Amino acid sequence: MKFTAQQIAGMLNGSIEGNDTVEVSALSKIEEGKPGTLTFLSNPKYTQYIYSTQASIAIVSKAFEAEQALPSTLTLVRVDDPYACFAKLLEAYDQLRKPQPGIHASAQIDASAEVPSNAHIGAGAVISAGVKLGENVIVSAQVFIGEGVRIGSNTYLHPGVKIYRDCVIGDQCTLHAGVVIGADGFGFAPQADNQYSKVPQIGNVVIEDRVEIGANTSIDRATLGSTFIRRGVKLDNLIQVGHNVEIGENTVIAAQTGIAGSSKIGANCMIGGQVGIAGHISIANGCKIAAQSGISASMLKEGTVVQGSPALEIMDFKKAYIVYRRLPEWAARIEALEKSSKN
Predict the structure, then answer these.
(1) Could you tell me if 211 and 285 lie in one domain?
(2) What pLDDT digit, counting tens, does each position of 108-152 carry?
(3) % of the chain at pLDDT higher than 90
(4) Has residue 329 been placed in a domain?
(5) How many domains does the chain have?
(6) Over 90: is that where the pLDDT of 193 sits?
(7) CA 301/CA 314 separation, integer angstroms
(8) Per DSSP, what are the bridge partners of residue 295?
(9) Which of 36, 49, 149, 293 lies at a C-alpha separation of 20 to 30 Å from 329?
(10) Whether the Cβ atoms of residue 47 and residue 65 lie closer than 8 Å to each other
(11) 245 within 8 A of 253, measured Cβ to Cβ
C-alpha cells in the first residue's frame, strides 16, 4: 500500500514541508533510506544522515532546524514527538500486514470447535474438539490447538505454535513461531531400582491478556492446578517456564532464562538473559536480576537488584568483584613473599 505525505501528516497531526503528494510504500532507517520509503529523525546522533538520505519522507521534530541544504527529494512531516509518531506508524504498518480473515482449505477444524467468521486459519492448522476462538484471532500455518483450549480476541498465533489441551490464552496476546504451551511439566518420582516413574501432569497453563511470548519458548502445564502467566508479561525467545510457576503482571524476561517448577515471580520484575531460577522460591514485586545470575533462594524484599551466581545484592556483588579482579595480583604477591622467605 502507498501513502502520501498528506495522509501521513493527517494520521500524526503533523505539518508538511515539501511535496504533500509524494508517496511511500515502506519504512526505513534514516541512514539506509531509499526512494519511496518513510524514515524519522529523533536521536541527534543521526542528524548528519538527514542531509544525504534518499528517503522520500522524514518525520522530524517541530523544533528541527536544518543547518545545511536538505535533499530536494525529501519531504518533512513535523510533529511533536518523532519517535512516538514513527512507533505509531510501525504499529499501523504491522496491522496492515496481518493476514486477512479466512480459512485455508488444508486446515483441519473439528466440528465442535467455535471459530468466528473474522478469524484467520492458515494452511495445515489443526483445531481440535471443544476449542473456542475469540474475535479476530489469527491462527497461522501449522499451528496445533488441542482439545478444550480457549483463546481470546485479537490474539496472534504465529506459524508452528503448539497449544496442548485445556490451556487458556487471553485477549491481545502474541505467540511467536515454535512456542509450546502446556507440554508436561518435568515430574518424575525416583524408584528403589534407580529408575524414574512419571508423575502425570493433569493441570493446564493460563495466559492472561496482552502477553507476548518469543519464538521457541516453552511453558509447562501444572501437575495440578495451573501455571500462570499474568497480564502484560513479555517473554523473550528460548525461555523455559516450569510447571506451576507463576509470573506476575508486567514482568519482562530476556532470552534463555530457565524457571524451575513452582516458583513465584512477582509483578513488574525485570530478568536478564540466561538467568537460572531454582524451584519452589518466591521473588518479590519489582525485583531486577542481572543476566547470567543464579537464583537459589527467595528474594522477599521488593525492588531488590541482584547479580552473580549465586546471586548477591548488586552493591555486594560489585564489592566482591573488585576483590575477585585483584586475585591474580595478590596471588603473585603471595608467591613472591613465599620465595623471599625461603631465601
Answers:
(1) yes
(2) 999 999 999 999 999 999 999 999 999 999 999 999 999 999 999
(3) 87
(4) no
(5) 2
(6) yes
(7) 13
(8) 277
(9) 293
(10) no
(11) no
Domain hosting 89: range is 3-97
User: Which cell goes with 153?
Assistant: 480476541
In the sheet with 120-121, reading across from the earlier edge strand, the strands are: 102-103, 120-121, 138-139, 156-157, 174-175, 212-213, 234-235, 252-253, 270-271, 288-289, 305-307, 312-313
Cα-Cα end-to-end distance for the chain:
85
Residue 98 · residue 116 · CB < 8 Å = no
Lowest mean pLDDT among 50-59, 140-149, 307-316: 307-316
Q: How many CB atoms lie within 10 A of CB 139?
A: 31
Query: Would the CA dihedral through 104, 107, 111, 117 be positive or negative?
Result: negative
Give the residue with greater pLDDT, 30 vs 338: 30
pLDDT tens sequence across 233-251: 999 999 999 999 999 999 9
193 and 209 co-located in one domain: yes
Residue 323 inside a domain? The answer is: no
Mean pLDDT of the 273-284 span:
98
Residue 283 near residue 298, CB atoms below 8 Å: yes
Angle, vertex CA 130, rays to CA 110 and CA 236, nearest 5 = 95
**What pLDDT is recorded for position 208?**
98
Of the pLDDT bands very low, low, confident and very high (cuts 50, 70, 90), residue 96 is confident
- In the three-class reduction of DSSP (H, G, I as helix; E, B as strand; rest coil), residue 321 is classed as helix
Q: How far is CA 40 from the centre of its chain?
A: 24
Q: Which of 120, 158, 176, 243 is catalytic?
A: 243
Whether 58 and 167 share a structural domain? no
Active-site annotation holds for 120? no
At 234, which CATH number? 2.160.10.10
